[in-house]
Amino acid sequence: MKISINRLKKYIPLQEDSEQIAALLTQSGLEVEGIEEYISILGGLEGIVIGEVLTCVKHPDADKLSLTTVDIGAEEPSQIVCGAPNVAQGQKVLVATVGATLYPSEGDPFTIKKAKIRGQVSAGMICAEDELGLGSSHAGIMVLDTDFPNGTPASELIPVAQDQVLEIGLTPNRADAASHIGVARDLKALLLKDLNIDAEPEIAIEANGPQITVEVENSADCPRYAGIVISDLKVAPSPQWLQDFLKALDLEPINNVVDITNFILHDLGQPLHAFDADKISEGKVIVKKLPKDTKFVTLDEKERKLSGEELMICDSKGGMCIAGIFGGIGSGVSDETTSIFLESAYFSPDVIRKGAQFHGLKTDASFRFERGTDPNMPVYALKQAVKLLQEIAGGKVSSEIIDLYPQPIADFEIEVEYGHINRLIGKTIEPSEVKSILESLEIRVVDETASGFKAIVKPYRVDVTREADIIEEVLRIHGFHQVELSENLDTDYLAEHPAKDLNKLQYRLSEILSGQGYSEIITNSLTKPSYSEKSGYLDPALNVEIYNKLSEDLGVMRQTLLFSGLEVLARNINRRQTDLKLFEFGTIYQKPETGYQEGRRLAIFHSGQRSAESWLEPSKPFGFADLYSTVERILEKLGIQVSEVSMIEKAPFAYGLQLMLGQKVLGIIGLVDEPLLKLAEVRQDVWFAELDWDLICKKAGGLKRYQEISKFPEVRRDLSLVIDKSTSYDQVKTVALKAGGKLLQRIGVFDVYQGDKIESGKKAYALSFFLQDQENTLTDKVIDKTMSKLIQAFQNEVGAVIRT
Predict the structure, then answer these.
(1) Is 493 helix (H, G, I), strand (E, B) or coil?
(2) Secondary structure, 3-state, 586-641
(3) What is the dihedral of CA 10, 16, 20, 24, to 10 degrees?
(4) Which of 80, 341, 515, 590 is 20 to 30 Å apart from 560, CA to CA?
């Protein structure tokens, strides 16, 4: 669920930044999974200025090009080559200056550079609307009618809306928070601030229009049904503020009528549905169930057979809408619509849930109805929508509000004892604070005594019906983090949590590595003292010496698996077995000042050729990527996410990487330095990784066995980035995973370039991005939006230039 920070500020004065708001909401039970930046025009028109064409002549060497000089507010006019047929002297235009990045309506972003076009210098670009992402027209450049001085940023002429959007992982019980007003209620309690809610508008009949009557056959499935007729409206595109609000929430604006219903749904949590009033047969709306196997065509033009259990909104001829789930194709709003019947209802969550599951339909409306909406909201939401329809679509009220609510849903009354609050929370909370918290959450406290009180809970809080629920409300606002842990903390679990079988985990990982062509080795824990004395890698003072030595070559316990593994490699290489992939689980030993220590390690070795020589392809030696990919697969299998990767250029490696897990070293990977190879008498390159197996076992979630294959296709998009040589791939990957969100499944590098075609100190990565939605087929718009987010993140966070 997405929540706009800008809209939250309409309800509650927020000085806190988005990170602070996210932290507050998360600690209170509304887990914020991410924060996205929304900008109505990609790039924010940065580097785009208003200019004036001073001269315009034909390009001397190109019939279809013009050579212009443009005043952009600089000391000297800029010479710009322009290919638009409508460019002329005296025009006010939008100019992309050198260094500006453009995000066109179609195609990849590109950066403006000073260049020569057919022998003439061009320092900038006069823009058409599609080149700036402002529209689809490419018939010519944009010609402005403005008095803004030359050099004025384009964002002062064309407003750029910006917002920050919270992605909240809403749990099923918090139906009340499936809206901006719901989230604002929690912030009101957390920040102790007032909630600014618009007063209920006055509605009066203004015009004659179609008259609609409503009949509800089953009030158990539809306890409340309200509606109103609006006439003389004009269906048209929505104003920019409304389009920006919807786009920030990843919704596609459709027209002013539909957009208003979507606005109310996300703002107040109340789904609305607009019917074309002139298409309602005999002016009758009937809420009822239709017989099983009745055919009904929904808005997506699919014919569906009804189960007979879903609730339908009908007219005298038949179904118009699957109540609370999806509209029908015959009664929806179109460009020709002039009168609507606007529905606002409270449906039984059970009947909506069953209908949505039967038809496999998941809509924003059903998401809320099946969890439980506020039965007191329909008329208020209806009036707010009418107000917007009057302002935006020119609509006029043509009927009284119909409100069928035969048996109002009562508030919940819950008896609460202070002693139970303190017992369940594990901390004494003063009655005054309990009362303050509950009242800030719009839960009234009545009949208070020294031992307890009665809580009156409004029915929109469908999850607060018991004393334990009231106590949970007190705790989440008081703060879980403020409850101190007892020194004698104890707990019990309903579910079993069997201990991890570390031997089984090691055995299964051994099977996986063996299946990838590795051979397992088991080496002696006793080793040569000379390895620590001569390597410059190990500290001789940490050696665990053997008092009763069998020989000097077996005089100490090993501090690493490296040298015993190198001895195995040397023995095999001396016997002409030169292409080797080995692994070992073993124990290392040290004796620091605090006493003896030992730990388990996993070592992996590569040496020689990765593939045998063949007529199909030449043999290739092992490289860093071969070993790193093996380590990545191991960690991925065990559900471990490396927190930091850094370069190391010291023993035991010529070069390599260090992997961190929090503040602890998880492992090292690299090319073994030549002096160390000579110590073990190895005469070819060796790639080595050593992982802390104890730390892995502690953090591993168990081997991942399988996951469901998505029903929806994967999409690949490629980008080429020019970045500083000092920027690592891991930094790029971290930025990508953060910006790409849930849709970005994986990233691949298919080319790396360093050479004279890019500037010194730079390198180019050619990256592939694989996008997939687990619930829907990706559209071009969603794909393009995701890629634009990635591009902006690369430019802002690692200073990347996108190659085109």
Answers:
(1) coil
(2) EEEEECCCCCCEEEEEEEEEEECECCCCCCCCCCCECCHHHHHHHHHHHHHHCCCC
(3) -60
(4) 515
**Cβ atoms 226, 336 nearer than 8 A:** no
Token pair recorded at residue 25: 């909401």
Do 372 and 520 share a structural domain? no
Q: Is 567 helix (H, G, I), strand (E, B) or coil?
A: helix
Alpha-carbon distance 248 to 37, whole Å? 8
Percent of the chain beyond pLDDT 70?
97
Distance CA 183, CA 430 (A): 26
3-class DSSP assignment, residue 731: helix
Inter-residue contact 259 to 189 (CB < 8 Å): no
Which pLDDT tens digit goes with each residue over 230-276?
999 999 999 999 999 999 999 999 999 999 999 999 999 999 999 99
* Amino acid identity at 211: Q
Indicate if 270 and 397 belong to the same structural domain. yes
Cβ atoms of 697 and 679 closer than 8 Å: no
The whole-angstrom separation of Cα 41 and Cα 102 is: 10
Give residue 130's Cα distance to chain centre: 28
Sorted by sequence, the CB contacts under 8 Å of residue 88 that are 6+ apart come out as 53, 56
Give yes or no for residue 497 having a pLDDT over 60. Answer: no
DSSP annotation of 479: -
Longest Cα–Cα distance of the chain, Å, equals 108
**In a shared domain, residues 222 and 318:** yes
| Cα 455 from Cα 411, distance rounded (Å) | 10
* Alpha carbon distance 344, 230 (integer Å): 14
Structure tokens at 433: 């604070």
CA-to-CA dists, residue 9 to 16, 23, 200, 591, angstroms = 10, 17, 19, 60
Return the beta strands (E) in 705-788 as ranges: 715-724, 744-753, 762-771
The CATH number linked to 330 is: 3.50.40.10
Residue 670 Cα distances to 626, 649, 650, 659, 661, angstroms: 11, 9, 10, 11, 18
Each residue's pLDDT tens digit, 653-706:
998 999 998 889 999 999 999 999 999 999 999 999 999 999 998 888 766 666
Looking at residues 721-749, what average pLDDT do you find? 87
Bridge partners, residue 603, by sequence: 584, 690
Angle at 462 between CA 194 and CA 347, to 5 degrees: 110
From CA 275, how far away is CA 320, in angstroms rounded? Answer: 8
Shared-domain flag, residues 33 and 53? no
d(CA 791, CA 740): 10
Nearest to 721 by CA among 752, 746, 747, 759: 752
Around Cβ 591, how many Cβ atoms within 10 Å?
Answer: 17
State phi, psi for 127 to the nearest 5 degrees.
-105, 145
Q: What are the DSSP E strand ranges found in 388-525? A: 396-397, 402-404, 412-417, 444-446, 452-457, 519-520
Residue where a domain terminates, one of 344, 379, 404: 404
Answer whether 657's CB lies under 8 Å from 648's CB.
Answer: yes
Report the amino acid identity of residue 652. P
Q: What is the CA radius of gyration of the chain?
A: 34
- The verdict on 17 and 62 lying in the same domain is no
367 touches 269 (CB < 8 A): no
Say how far apart CA 566 and CA 570 lie, in whole Å.
6
What is the DSSP-derived secondary structure letter of residue 762? E
- The pTM of this model reads 0.72
| Full 3-state SS string of 168-198 | EECCCCCHHHCCHHHHHHHHHHHHCCCCCCC
pLDDT tens sequence across 586-608: 999 999 888 899 999 999 999 99
User: Does one domain contain both 336 and 234?
Assistant: yes
Q: Quick one: 570 and 633 in the same domain?
A: yes
